[in-house]
Amino acid sequence: MPSRRGDSVLGAILLGGALVFSAALSARYSPAPIHPRRWAYYRRLAKPAFTPPDYAFAVWGPLWLALAVAGWRLWRAPKSRARSRALLHWFAAQALNPVWLWLGFRRRNRGAMALEGAGAVANAVALADAARRTDSMAGVLSLPYLAWIGFAGLLSEELWRLNRNREA
């Protein structure tokens, strides 16, 4: 059985690695000015009236920070089935974020992006519930992510609906 210190080091490596990997892939596939073709594609899409201004997407920094703290609290919580479930959903969230961007802006498959968005919302709900059952503060820290992913899921569905008859 690993020591508490060894368990903490392993947790820091796994959680930090997942966050860095997720953030790097998300940045790679995001429709941002540093990716001119994806940026132009995103600009051409018909968007719903509730589309936030571009600067609102800076929310990811604080969201990742909250997720990092939530993940750390979950990792440090006593081992249980609820903790394992919460960590599974936490790691799934890290994987689903860049997949959404890849599907929507690299593959330009808005239908698949909308479906993945629905899956990401379901995972975020499960994460918030499992985190709350494991560590109340981790549950609270997962709520902003749930809110943003819920909004992104709605935005994905609307991007698909408004653009489904348009060429990718």
SSE inventory with pairings:
Blueprint: H1 4-29, H2 36-44, H3 60-76, H4 81-106, H5 110-134, H6 136-163
Helix pairs in contact: 1-3, 1-4, 3-4, 3-6, 4-5, 5-6
Percentage of residues assigned to helices: over 70%
Strand residue content: under 5%
Number of contiguous helices:
6
Low-confidence stretches: none
**What would the principal axes of the Cα set say about the shape?**
elongated
The computed structural class is mainly alpha
The topology string of helices and strands comes to: HHHHHH
CA radius of gyration: 17 Å
CA-to-CA gap between the ends?
Answer: 52 Å
Q: Tally the beta strands.
A: 0
Mean pLDDT across all amino acids: 92
User: Biggest sheet, in brief?
Assistant: none
Descriptive report:
This protein has helices spanning 4-29, 36-44, 60-76, 81-106, 110-134, 136-163. Helix 1 (4-29) packs antiparallel against helix 3 (60-76), helix 3 (60-76) packs across helix 6 (136-163) and helix 5 (110-134) runs antiparallel to helix 6. The chain has 168 residues and is an all-alpha fold. The protein is built from six helices and no strands. The protein starts with a helix and ends in a 5-residue tail after the last helix.
